[in-house]
Amino acid sequence: MKTILTNKHIFIETRKRALQCYIEPVLKYGCEAWTISKQIQNKLEATEMWFLRRMLRMPWTAKKTNERVLNEANKRRSLVKTIRKRQATFLGHVMRRGKLEHLVTTGKFEGKRSRGRQREKIMDGLASWLGTGKVSDTLAAVKDKDLWRDMITNAYKQGT
């Protein structure tokens, strides 16, 4: 794909479309189950910028800001937002189904918690992205399909 994505004779819109159709699905495979920490989010954003710089044939030594690269490509950052949207959609499906996946996602298993700082859960990240604040509010909102869809749409449009 390198020859297609870096070819200057192909319009940038066509190259962006090829990136979106062939590369991003491989990158996003299984993203519904990821827990996105700040570190992983930074790596995903860096990967997105790396793709754009390669398509525009910009060397790393060129002192161009990420905003300038995005303006030249006529694109906005969308990778992390798309992953969060897919996670929220999948979570709504799993929670309304109410089977074993529901128990795993909510973490309601018997036993002791491990020592040390607790790991960040996928529910915590989605609650902060959706702006509900609490996981319990997020779980309550999942039950109403229309409300859940509106919450996902609003969070995606805000770009947080």
TrEMBL record:
Origin: domain of life: Eukaryota
Protein's name in the database: UDP-glucuronosyltransferase 2a1-like
